[in-house]
Write a structure and sequence with these properties.
The structure holds two protein chains of two kinds.
Chain A: E1 2-10, E2 20-28, E3 32-33, H1 34-45, E4 65-68, E5 71-74, E6 79-80, E7 85-89, E8 96-98, E9 101-102, E10 107-110, E11 113-116
Parallel strand pairs in A: 1-7
Antiparallel strand pairs in A: 1-2, 3-6, 4-5, 4-7, 8-9, 10-11
Chain B: E1 4-14, H1 18-29, E2 34-37, E3 54-56, H2 70-80, H3 87-107, E4 121-122, E5 132-134, H4 138-152, E6 156-159, E7 162-170, E8 173-181, E9 186-197, H5 218-226, E10 230-231, E11 236-243, E12 268-269, H6 284-296, E13 306-308, H7 317-327, H8 329-339, E14 348-357, E15 360-361, E16 374-376, H9 393-415, H10 423-434, H11 446-460, E17 464-465, H12 467-485, H13 497-521, E18 530-531, H14 539-542, E19 545-551, E20 554-560
Parallel strand pairs in B: 1-2, 1-9, 2-6, 9-16, 17-18
Antiparallel strand pairs in B: 3-5, 4-5, 7-8, 8-9, 10-15, 10-19, 11-14, 12-13, 13-14, 19-20
The chains are: A mainly beta, B alpha/beta.
Chain lengths: ~130, ~575
């Protein structure tokens, strides 16, 4: 058992004057991915923390992209050892909705390509 | 001022993976204005991105299995499902699968071809001829390219991060849905002439699953509240060999099929190092039972699973790495990245996990539900696969039934006018969704409630069930229903995970109760419903669907005849 210090970017643009960082001390007795550590923080320590929790078991959907220790990476596939320190921030090129959740915007990227989602405008017949 | 936004479309499609994209494309093709709405991000969400390479279709002379026909596919599906699927819908799947593969190719999905340009088709159990077309880069490639096609169409508007948590009804029909826009923290009412449910199954109701944790029963819950019939909810398919540990990759599929003699030639081992299967390996549904029983008997490892030990496989470690590295490229790499272990070098523990739901919303061959204005397709729909499912069928179903649901929904929208929303219903639904902010004392955490429901399902609604366990599960769900009223959520508007969890907990409890009561109702065993207290299959009395229908007093459970078209069961079969 060792304490892993997880420093997390926190920001609620509607409320916070500026982003800040919060450090969580997470007890770990085995290697865990960043995504799993965040789930642990959410369920055991802090229900205010926002992030995308999806898991596709393939590292393919890229919903969990974040900036981890300074580089954009998949939270589901980044392994942290007990006692290691880690810095978790959102993908900075997209606007932050809250904490680690960003609005990926109209351009969606998966491991199999890129496309633009928001094209249609809804006009109905009547 | 209204406390919600209103949007309007001819056709609303709920979901964002294979079936939803296909339904939206078809409705768009028919000239409809479409809203496709997903609680996460279309192209990334749902079960399709998790899928492997296999999508079955009889390609005839265009594939390597030149003798294969739709008739043969139909027969294999009926046999595989033990005459338990409605054959009017099996016909739809079998006879349109080939065209749908060509649609996918047109949309940019990449398939493997032989040197002379034929579709590569791999054999899967239950297929008379090798029928599984090989998608390069697997399900992620499929969902990405389908979502790409959706995005090319000007008459489809995509709403991401919108959780539909209620269907809206008026004058006896479905007239749209109510969503929480998670990024804004606002309610959005969508008025639609037709609504298509294409948001997957409910595998995520179990804590141990190989599906995304988001698939918790939206389809069943939405449809049941609106008054549409549900069917065969007790037919819960498990997959035998999913990773139980390390935690970070818990649920990842280790492909049992590749243990076959012709491939890795491997086995599964108990904690004493003994192989649990003879030769040849049993088909996967039999294998699940063997693995489950062996673990129940206390022969599992420290994490409660059996060992997927490829160091002992007949083909050798190098060959096994080649097979798993090529056939399941992404999973192979993911396990290595997310656990630090190579799945071939290190024997990892596996156990049966919730994999697919055969039951769901009751549909006919046009993908109409029992409620006017409501349509369903893909894993959300229920009554065509039978009591078992052939490998490679799930993705094929998303396209065949997805296209049909889109077509029928478009025709319905064309022929009808908007009924309008029931303002009182809408206000009451919004009031219910907001009430979580008012709870104070004795608060229950939404994440604890959700985890409790999922663990109860894994414990009691397992591959083997009994009245005792199911009754215990039912009682737990009743307790959780009380807890639901005590959920306290934080006063945060945007991306409030607790709020989503509370709304999802309602969905989960609805679905769990209907599954448990369906499983209690069926007092026999067949396919993916095995009752320890009623171990025999009783075709005479029970070869019928379990139909769930909403009444004034709650839900009524009854038997409904299976529809046979080309292949009625022979007497005594």
């Amino acid at each position: 058992m060792a304490i892993t210090k997880v420093k997390v970017f926190r920001y609620y643009p509607d409320v916070d004057a500026a982003p800040y960082y919060q450090t969580y001390e997470v007890e770990m007795d085995e290697n865990l991915t960043v995504l799993f550590i965040l789930k642990k923080i959410y369920s055991e320590m802090d229900q205010t923390l926002a992030f995308r929790e999806n898991l596709c078991y393939k590292g393919g959907c890229l919903q969990c992209l974040m900036t981890i220790n300074g580089a954009v990476a998949k939270a589901c596939s980044t392994l942290i050892k007990p006692g290691e320190e880690v810095l978790v921030e959102p993908v900075f090129k997209s606007p932050v909705v809250r904490d680690l959740v960003v609005d990926f915007g109209t351009t969606v990227t998966t491991s199999c390509g890129e496309f633009t989602l928001e094209r249609g405008t809804v006009v109905t017949k009547k | 001022m209204e406390n919600y936004k209103t949007l309007k479309a001819d056709v609303m499609v709920i979901g964002g993976a294979g079936a939803a994209c296909r339904a939206a494309i078809e409705a768009s093709e028919k000239g409809m204005n479409v809203i496709m709405i997903d609680k996460d991000i279309p192209g990334k969400s749902g079960a399709t991105p998790c899928a492997l390479w296999s999508i079955q279709a009889p390609m005839g002379k265009d594939g390597v299995s030149t003798e294969d026909t739709p008739e043969q596919f139909f027969e294999d599906m009926v046999n595989g499902g033990h005459y338990f699927g409605d054959q009017n819908i099996v016909e739809l799947v079998a006879f349109t699968a080939k065209e749908r593969i060509y649609d996918m190719k047109k949309y940019g999905v990449k398939f493997a071809f032989t040197d002379d340009g034929k579709f590569v088709q791999t054999p899967m159990p239950g297929q008379t001829y090798p029928r599984s077309c090989f998608m390069i880069a697997n399900g992620t490639n499929m969902s990405t390219n389908l979502a790409k096609e959706v995005s090319r169409r000007e008459n489809i508007r995509v709403l991401k991060d919108h959780l539909i948590f209620q269907l809206l009804t008026n004058k006896g029909q479905v007239v749209g849905g109510l969503a929480l826009d998670q990024n804004e923290g606002e309610m959005v009412a969508i008025e639609a002439a037709s609504t298509v449910i294409a948001c997957g199954g409910y595998t995520g109701l179990w804590s141990f699953t190989d599906n995304p944790p988001t698939l918790i029963g939206d389809a069943v819950s939405l449809a049941s509240r609106a008054g549409a019939d549900l069917v065969d909810l007790e037919m819960n398919q498990y997959y035998g060999t999913d990773l139980v540990w390390p935690e970070s990759a818990r649920g990842t599929v280790l492909l049992y099929e590749c243990l076959h003699e012709s491939m890795a030639n491997g086995n599964i081992y108990n904690k004493h190092g003994e192989p649990v299967f003879g030769n040849p390996l049993p088909i996967r549904d039999e294998a699940i039972k063997v693995i489950y029983k062996e673990i129940q008997a206390g022969n599992g490892g420290p994490h409660g699973g059996l060992y997927f030990d490829l160091t002992k496989c007949g083909a050798g470690i190098e060959k096994a790495k080649e097979i798993y590295g090529e056939m399941t490229t992404k999973q192979y790499r993911f396990i290595e990245e997310a656990t630090g272990f190579n799945m071939v070098d290190t024997p990892l523990e596996v156990a049966p996990a919730s994999h697919y739901q055969l039951g769901g919303v009751y549909i006919n061959e046009k993908c109409e539900t029992s409620m006017p204005g409501l349509f369903a397709c893909g894993e959300s729909a229920g009554n065509f696969l039978g009591d078992n499912r052939l490998a490679g069928s799930a993705l094929c179903d998303t396209q065949t039934t997805g296209a049909k649901a889109g077509e029928t929904a478009a025709a319905f929208a064309k022929d009808s006018s908007f009924v309008g929303l029931d303002k009182a219903q809408l206000d009451s639904m919004i009031g219910d969704a907001m009430r979580y902010f008012e709870n104070k004392a004795g608060a229950v955490k939404s994440s604890d409630l959700r985890q409790g429901i999922r663990e109860a399902m894994t414990k009691y609604v397992s591959p083997y069930r009994s009245e005792k366990g199911l009754t215990a599960a039912k009682n737990e769900m009743l307790n959780y229903s009380d807890d639901l009223k005590k959920i306290q959520i934080l006063p945060i508007k945007k991306r409030n995970t607790g709020w989503r969890e509370a709304l999802e907990a309602e969905i989960m409890l609805d679905t769990a109760k209907l599954i448990i009561d369906s499983a209690l109702f069926r007092k026999e065993s067949r396919g993916h419903h095995f009752r320890e207290d009623y171990p025999e299959t009783d075709n005479k009395n029970w070869r019928k669907h379990t139909l769930v229908r909403k009444t004034d007093k709650g839900f009524d459970y009854s038997l409904k005849d299976i529809i046979y078209t080309r292949m009625p069961p022979k007497d005594g079969e």
